[in-house]
Design brief:
about 180 residues; about 20% helix; 3 helices; 12 strands; 6-stranded mixed beta sheet; tt1808, chain A; alpha+beta; single chain
């Protein structure tokens, strides 16, 4: 029997998705895409390496953050899985006991791929804005670019764009310099 067209996806729908796919609920619809390609994974892993030491562990930086790969975010009716997200520990003193987060992160990073870029930009960015995420980075490993956005008055404002092997110190992690060349294959 066919499901009604206006049926909203549920967590049970997420649980039914094969493990080789990433599943999200965006605007009531179940959205799936393949696990990230190696170029995508390298960019995310390398960026995480750059941020965890100084911001999560306090090595050579200010500390005070949780930086996590692919956390499951429950933001109202939407369920999102950003590539990387970070929370100020003053807002999230302890990690939750659940397998997901109900507190919106302070920063998210989406690593764009041909299968996700449209939803990352057009669907997920407005959800992050409604949830009050303060910064979002969009990384494109094929174009070798980083776009840095800040939430101002409920709207995303592009603060910086960088490419190739630039040395950058973008907000909210301006306390250290990142070599973008380390993110690319």
């Amino acid at each position: 029997m066919a499901e009604p067209a206006d049926r909203h996806a549920t967590y049970e729908d997420i649980l039914g998705v094969p493990p080789e796919l990433v599943a999200e609920i965006l605007g009531g619809r179940l959205v799936t895409h393949p696990r990230p390609a190696p170029r995508h994974t390298l960019a995310g892993s390398s960026l995480g390496d750059e941020l965890v030491g100084p911001f999560q562990k306090g090595r050579g930086g200010p500390g005070g953050w949780w930086i996590l790969d692919e956390p499951e975010l429950h933001l109202g009716a939407d369920l999102l899985v950003p590539d990387i997200a970070g929370w100020h520990r003053e807002r999230l003193p302890r990690l939750p006991e659940t397998a997901w987060f109900e507190i919106a992160p302070d920063w998210v990073c989406e690593i764009l791929s041909p299968s996700t870029a449209r939803d990352d930009r057009v669907v997920k960015m407005p959800i992050y804005a409604r949830a009050g995420v303060g910064h979002i980075w969009l990384i494109d490993p094929d174009l070798r670019t980083l776009e840095v956005y800040a939430l101002e008055s409920g709207r995303w404002v592009l603060l910086e764009s960088h490419r190739d092997d630039a040395q950058v110190a973008p907000p909210p992690f301006g306390a250290i310099e990142i070599d973008l060349g380390d993110l690319w294959a």
